[in-house]
UniProtKB/TrEMBL annotation:
Catalytic activity, EC: 2.7.7.9
A GO term for molecular function: UTP:glucose-1-phosphate uridylyltransferase activity
GO biological process terms held by the UniProt record: UDP-alpha-D-glucose metabolic process
Name of the protein described by the UniProt record: UTP--glucose-1-phosphate uridylyltransferase
Entry-linked Gene3D superfamilies: Spore Coat Polysaccharide Biosynthesis Protein SpsA, Chain A
Catalysed reactions, semicolon-separated: alpha-D-glucose 1-phosphate + UTP + H(+) = UDP-alpha-D-glucose + diphosphate
Domain annotation Nucleotidyl transferase: ranges: 7-275
Organism annotation: Microbacterium azadirachtae
């Protein structure tokens, strides 16, 4: 397997209830993070990792996502006529990022079900899954490292992040046991996974965040995985089976200590916008001055 062959799957069929009423008519994946919708950051991350074929799993009222990645000749023409080449370049760039496909999930039955819907498109190759609630800073190439570890070992690779114990109930959590042979120091052998455990029942403080590189064998497991927590087909349950298989390549967890922005929570979404804007050359200097003045006035 090479990076040129690997495809990406972006599940985007959720209802976005935490952001109502903003998401009543707008997909949560299209909520702006500074001046780009959240899902564009995710697509750009996949492209930066060498992925050219991307499948977005959508649900009802998600046409805005496909519209965003289409070309808009009338808008492009007007910008060109005005000589607004900077904005024109940004508009065109979003249309030329990758070969993007769309598939309806139908009834939302969980992340595992959304991933299973990608089977026909992905085929027998390994693939990456990127969740749109987690944005990874482009300066920290997490997905590239995950693909490299999968190519090296053949294992399913999941992204892990150390969190405070009082936050662990918000995440799927990994039980780990040492560094796999030949792996980098920040990779762990995953022996088990628990979906959103109580603090006292968590096997570690290593939370599963929204990046996966998976072998095609996970589809067979998902086919027979019954609904789990919340009545949904959980990807975590399928990964648990891969981790428990003594004859398989197993599951490796790559501990990510880079910059991650959570856009799935209202407060964290606001923080993400501020952090990303503050780091930009065009917005950061003025914003940082204003933030300091604002903070001092509270």
């Amino acid at each position: 397997m090479t990076k040129a062959r690997i495809k990406a799957v972006i599940p985007a069929a959720g209802l976005g209830t935490r952001f109502l009423p903003a998401t009543k008519a707008m997909p949560k994946e299209m909520l702006p993070v500074v001046d780009k919708p959240a899902i564009q950051y995710v697509v750009e991350e996949a492209v930066a990792a060498g992925i050219e074929d991307i499948l977005v799993i959508i649900g009802r009222n998600k046409n805005a996502i496909s519209n965003h990645f289409d070309s808009v000749p009338e808008l492009e023409g007007k910008l060109s006529q005005k000589g607004d080449h900077s904005r024109l370049a940004r508009v065109v760039a979003s249309s030329d990022l990758a070969d993007i496909h769309y598939l309806r999930q139908g009834e939302p039955k969980g992340l595992g079900h959304a991933v299973l819907r990608a089977r026909t498109h992905v085929g027998d190759s390994s693939f990456a899954v990127l969740l749109g609630d987690d944005l990874m800073d482009e300066r920290d190439p997490l997905l590239t490292e995950m693909i490299a570890e999968h190519e090296r070992s053949g294992a399913a690779v999941i992204a892990l992040m150390e969190v405070e114990p009082e936050q662990i109930h918000l995440y799927g959590t990994a039980a780990v046991d040492g560094i796999p042979e030949g792996a980098p120091d920040h990779v762990r052998h995953v022996t088990g996974l628990v979906e959103k455990p109580a603090r006292e029942e968590a096997p570690s403080n290593l939370a599963v965040i929204g990046r996966y590189v998976l072998p095609a064998a996970v589809f067979d497991i998902l086919e027979r995985t019954p609904p789990g927590k919340g009545g949904e087909i959980q990807l975590t349950d399928a990964l648990q089976e891969l981790a428990a298989d003594p004859d398989g390549p197993g599951v490796h967890g790559l501990i990510f200590r880079g910059r991650r922005y959570d856009t799935g929570d209202r407060l964290e979404y606001i923080k993400a916008i501020v952090q990303l804007a503050a780091d930009r050359d065009d917005l950061g200097p003025d914003l940082r001055v204003w933030l300091k003045e604002f903070a001092e006035g509270i």
